[in-house]
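task queued by scheduler; priority normal; single chain, no ligands, no partner chains; default sampling; output format set to structure tokens
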Amino acid sequence: MATYQEIRQMWSDVGMDLDKHDGFLNTFPGIYKRIIQPQEGRPDKIDYFSKVVTSVHGRRPYELFKHKQNGGKVFGTYCVYVPDEILLALNGVSTGLCGGDQFWVPGGEKFLPANTCPLIKSSMGSRMDRTSPFCQVADMFIGEATCDGKKKAWEILAQDVPMHIMEVPQMKREKDIQRFAEEIWQLVEIAQNLTGNQLNYDTLAQSIITINNKRRALKRLNRTRQASPVPISGKDALMVIQVAFYDDPIRFAEMTNILCDELEERIIKKEGPFAADIPRILVTGTPMALPNWKLHHLVETSGAVVVCEESCTGTRYFEELVEEDSTDLNGQIMALAERYMKTNCACFTPNQARTEDIIRYAKEYKADGIIDYTLQFCGLYSTESYLLRSALKNEAIPFLHIETDYSEQDSEQLRTRIEAFIEMLRD
């Protein structure tokens, strides 16, 4: 484990603004201590993930830094449509770059309109203010064309750092899947040029298994949340999923499975942080990048528990696996395209499959109600909430739509609405 002096030197070596970053270090631990740490009845094996989060700008960025010193390359990614399997197979390491903290929003607003999604502003600010080691250590950023705000932000970021944009088709016809396979082939070419390595069947087969195993571990974790009482809080489960975007995939799968061993024992003993009769909430909508625990905290301090997330920091990230039986490289690329195009982002039209997923999850996780969470100025998910509300009304599933940002200014107003919704579920 690196010393603090070694980590701070690493921050300097990758070009961080240490004075500004000290401001982040003065605020982030307080968020964890206020929201995550005070929880009662936490599983013992959650300790690994807590340590990753509390040292999020230390241990893992230092590992990435050492990977670069040993000749490897680091790719920063912003979306679940970027196939990590390709990067891993070329001896690259991928790491998430999405910002989930209000600290970075003012930095993003220097370049973006104020009425831009806070996730985009936070992500932009973390790079432009030089206050995220993940942004600074990456050799290349990989974005995607899933929304207009991101597409324009990538143009600005491309002036500051090498940037590759993946086109994501907006429909799911056969020709669209083939088109996305072509996008993956283009990523292969670009990543090969950067890493100096050549993609082959054997290395890609192994990387597909590695990333699938991470997904299997997360699926296993999520299945434990179907139990009553729930063996883990929604806040802790979300934290584990958030760590998956940063941690070494092999180590992450191992530690998540160890946690699941404990959770499955808790289910047998009927142990958990909440009573069995507490209202169960399914959260849907926009992603919740680390350390955005705002909604989960409001729900779980208002008399309910979050049992599942239908989002990119939830089931969309790990639900589907890549077919592992392809016999050649072309088959592997097509298997990747097919898997990633099953992800039901609101950028697709029509997107009935997402509604069907939500209804299915509500039944599987025995959800008493659904909270549809949308970040401000996210037109995709805000608009889709209309169709979602109608479909859930037909299924007699209680529904609450919430639109918010990363600040705490509306927390008490949201708490009032959430408490009223939970009280309705009890009645």
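post-processing summary
- The longest strand covers residues 369-375.
- The chain has a mean pLDDT of 96.
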